[in-house]
Amino acid sequence: MDYRKRMERVERHILAHLDEDLSLDALADVAAFSRFHFHRVYTRMMGETVAETVRRTRLNRAAVLLATTGQPLENVATICGYPNGQSFARAYRAAFGETPSHTRRSRVAPVLLLPENNGEIPMYDVDMRQEPGFRGAAVAHSGPYQEIGGAYEVLIKRCLDAGLGGRLGLLVAWFWDDPTAVPAEELRSHAGVILPDGVPLPDGLDPAEVEPCEVLVVTHKGPYTGLPEAWGFMYGKALPDSGRAPAEDEAPFERYLNSPMDTAPEQLLTEVVMPLAQEKSS
Fold first, then answer.
1. Rounded distance, CA 172 to CA 39, Å?
2. Which of 25, 85, 173, 228 is deepest in the core (most CB within 10 A)?
3. What is the pLDDT of residues 105-121, one digit of tens each?
4. CB atoms inside a 10 Å sphere around CB 7
C-alpha cells in the first residue's frame, strides 16, 4: 500500500472536481480507505485537513480565474464550488485580504500556500508484532478526549464494587472520532480495563474485546499530554512506512503500561496500537 500515492490521488481529484461532492466519505472512496482512518492519515501526511485543502484549492483556482478571465463573479463562484457570489466574496476576502474585484483589476492572482511546519518531528519506538487479544470492560465517554478521566473513575469504582480489586489488568482506551474533523463536544471514546480470563463482566459496564491480530505499535514515553503527537506519528509515518493497511474490523487503541498513581509523568509508558489488515496471499 503506497500511502503517498493515495493521498496525492485525492489532491488531484479535488483539483479536478471543485464543484462536486468533496465530503470525507467521497474522498475516502477516492483514496480507497475507510473514513475512520482516511482523514487521520491525510491530515498527518499532507500537513492540513481535507477541508483546508478543499478551501485552499477552491480559492486559488478562483484567484487565477479572476486574474486571467472575464468570467462573471457568479460563474467563478459556481466553478469553484461556492453556492453563490456573496458567500464566495466573503470567503475570498477573508482568505486573501482583498476583494475579487481588486484581483480582477490588478490581474495578479494571490496564492494560499500550505502552512510551514518548522517544528521538530518526535521519533518513537515502532514495533510490528502479534497481539494475543483480550477481553475487558469499558465505560463510554462523550466530549473532549482529555476529560476521559471521569469515565475511568466510574469504570474503576464499578470494578471495585464487583470485588475485582487486585485482579484487574492494564487500562486501555478507544477513541472513535477524529478530533480534527469532529467538534470536541461530540467526540466519542471508551475508557477500558483488561479483565483476566474467567472474570465476569461487572454490571453496568460495556464489554470490550480485541481479537488476536497483527499490530503496529508506537510506544510513547512521557506525560499523556504528548499522546496526540504519538498518534500523529502513527498515522503520518509509522503506518505509511509499514506499507500495511489498517484493519477495518478492529479499532486502534491506547494501552497504558504503568500508572500515574505511582510513576513520574516523564516515565509513563503508553502503547498506541494499530491492528493491521491481514495480508493477502499471492
1. 23
2. 173
3. 999 999 998 877 655 66
4. 22
